[in-house]
């Protein structure tokens, strides 16, 4: 066969070589001296080393390896063993274009284009180098017949990777004579199991180095001498930069939509564009291919979740590859959504949780049912190969835009049964739907675990683990999910944080609580009904301060319900205003009452408090000692008194002490002063008084004096009990001992009144309780009558 073929199109099986006899062709007579050779060798090795670092292992190993192996085989049996060694070390093949000409019924017809030459400077041993150059100068050309090359992988149990059939090749083998190679080779895949194992290690990033054993069988002739079929084996090792990394797939323009008849969807359609950079000099077209998308089940088997199909792909050397992919998801298999044994999640839960958190998730891809235009061997190879495919992490930070509680009602623990407070509320979850998701989505149940924080510290945990009925409403591009939650337990985790919240509610500017929740949603979609678990959500709840609109409680309906020798138990209706939008049920609450750092009693109540005005029934036990007696005397005398209300351990049973201490003005129990009116009778030397009391009592004794402008005008001493009923009471006529120096002043006021001051020690008895208190009144209007 001539070395000057007119055109590579003359035959698919013809050698397509060009051997121009120009200045670039170096003959034996042009050999430089040894020193120059060593210099060139060193330079060449340096250049080749740099080139080698820059090269990338071709996607199809056989394309370049097999061509080199065939030439090595030719040289190895046409020349003595020393020349064979020379050929192995000096041979250089630089591929310029590797492409797939067509897909055949058995494999691939690949086109290999490049430059082949021998470089003597690459041979390390000088005698071998000299002998090789001499032998190749003598032989000049070597020609092979149709050859067969097999590639084995020793590290994978010596499996057969592939077989290539090479057309005849004629090359000039003189030193640094450049042969432009353009041949068509038929490639057939080998052991499918071996290919699958290599592909999996490659996708898992475990393929750091690989060794290929190339075995070539070719008929050889040199000139007119035919040497018959010869076999040569060569080991080629690839590592470092020569082993390609897993390409970075860029998934773009992802869109979701239902497919099927309107109102009767059959499933979900996902459309995307996937792009990846082709770093190799490869050129070919890939036909439409079908794939199955799989997820592992509970037993690490695979479950089919979608059928995908690619558009035809045009691969060009060193250019970005773009492929359109369409996947159809029909009804999800039941085993995909069922909880795995000894677990709390299903296979779908694990996948969605990782995907929503932004972690890399893995699906598995294998070939599906190909169309009739796809060669059967491609379908079989894809069908028997399952490889992992990592989806890039994409955190859905704004999937749930807001998580809030409305119409909140707190129920404090019942001392007889419950150990935790409970919350009832309308849970509102605003889900942000991606704009490219044209899918009808409904929600019928939700549940959640929620941690409540205050100023970054954990306050407690809200238990919403029970499924609650829900409904969903489309709001613009969002989905508003609402659910009514009843009696969800709130576990206080940090008592000091709880105390800070109460302090800021009572005395501060309110409390901004942060809720961090993990939400489970039972969804109804075109794919069927399934649960999406552990969706992260966050929201804020602001509780208005009590002090902002605080009003002094109004007390009415005071009555004594129990007495002892040292204490009174009082009951009253208390009108209070709740300025917040939250309600609370208080089965029992007890606080202590303090005056000047001395505890004088307790108060307790049970109530349902709603936003706005409330009437609450409260009781108080008053233990009157010296401090209590003094305070009570000041109180009935109209002094501005205060009471300190302080919480304590078990103020609310089974609930942490809120550590509230609040000093408030004492609510008025009397419509007016205790002593409303006085009338002095001159002729009988008596006086009567109108007394106002919230409850019934007995006045057992009185020792009183009246003063006008600082001068005593009369005294009263009375040792006989009389009854007082609730409301206004007119006392009996009490004898008055007039001061003689004041009679003139009194007579002058006859028919009118005097502004007098009064001071009295009064004995009081209510049931078993008896006490003596003092009373002071200033500027009292005393009527003067005969």
From TrEMBL:
Domain of life: Eukaryota
Name listed for the protein in its UniProt record: Pre-rRNA processing protein
Chain ranges of the Tag1 C-terminal domain: 437-544
Region named Disordered: 1-51
Taxonomic classification: Eukaryota, Fungi, Dikarya, Ascomycota, Pezizomycotina
Ranges of compositional bias, category Low complexity: 1-18
Residues that span the membrane, as ranges: 60-79
InterPro entries per record: Ig_Tag1-like_4th, Ig_Tag1-like_5th, Tag1, Tag1_C
Boundaries of every Tag1-like fifth Ig-like domain copy: 672-774
Organism of this sequence: Capronia epimyces CBS 606.96
Domain (Tag1-like fourth Ig-like) ranges: 551-659
UniProt keyword annotations, A-Z: Membrane, Transmembrane, Transmembrane helix
GO CC terms: fungal-type vacuole membrane
Biased composition (Polar residues): 38-49
